[in-house]
Amino acid sequence: MDVDDFREAGKVVRRTLRRAEREISVGDDLLEVAEYLEDMIRDEGAEPAFPVNLSLNEVAAHYTPGPEGGPEIEPGSILKVDVGAHVNGAIGDAAITLVFDHELGERLAETAREALEAAIEVIRPGVTCREVGRAIGEVCRERGFRPVTGLTGHEIERWNLHAGVSIPNDDLPGYEDELKEGMILAVEPFVTTEEGDGDVEPGRYVEIFSVKNPNQRSRVNLRRIYEERRSLPFARRWLGSSASKLELLRLSRVGALKAYPELVERNGEPVAQWEHTVLVTEDGCEVLTR
Ligand code: CO
User: Fold this and answer.
1) What is the pLDDT of residues 82-107, one digit of tens each?
2) Residue 270 near residue 193 (C-beta atoms within 8 A)
């Protein structure tokens, strides 16, 4: 397999997250942050593989601002910055958690980061997805926290963000697939408190969609989106005024689009996330987004 494009996409993601870490601060508007980071991905010669996800506090994933603007970052919050870039469909996907004056949030973020490192340590051909999940779950419990098992890591293929096997965030039955050399995996521990449920539920808020049927009639030019990015997710705010929320929800109901509503921790507890994309090698893995 040609991994050069995946390495390049990973490098763009790494640079974008480094800038996010340096420059995002309290008072920033999330719409400006999202546009800034997506512009950086394009300036680096890649395209966003999905809208930059900027999920606050108990929102675990799939929040991106709408065209009318996002909330500002307030003190006492934690922000998951999940960034994807693609080069000719080869995707890099990684995430960090930024903490703004939130002591519990610091410990959750540190735990997610350590859980990811523990997962990376065990990844090699022949290891099962379940064993990787076990490493993640153990770190979470040792720190007195709970892994979010309602979310999983995922295999990546060209033009396909969620392909093949899934990597659970704990030692769970049903994830017995063995890793193979050459697989590309996005590993993403999500961690919440012991008071957390450990699962997520869809909220009412949805701004992220992907094309399932480009031939459906609509004011929104589905064919053009599909030609540009196939079924990679996009943000409503990328489409301009033709794409009302009502029209995108209608297209989701008839099966032309897939909607990705925000995913919220069921008990409303804060969630931290850390993520890297890795390539499984002969005797371990290469972290493509580090
Ligand atoms: Co991600």
Assistant:
1) 999 999 999 999 999 999 999 999 99
2) yes
